[in-house]
Amino acid sequence: MKAEEALAKAHTLIEALPWLARFHGATVVVKYGGNAMTEEHLREKFADDVVFLRYAGLRPVIVHGGGPQINAHLDRLGIASTFTAGLRVTTPEAMQVVRMVLVGQVNRDVVGLINRHGPFAVGMSGEDAHLFTAVRKHAVVDGAPVDIGQVGEIVDVSAGAVRALLDDGRIPVISSVARGEDGTVYNVNADTAAAALAVALRASKLIVLTDVEGLYRDWRPGAGDGEVITRLSVTELRELLPDLSSGMVPKMEACLSAVKEGVPQAHVIDGRVPHSLLLEIFTDEGIGTMVLPDDAGTSPAPEPAGHRLPTAAQPNRSDT
Question: Is the pTM of this model over 0.85?
Answer without folding.
Answer: yes
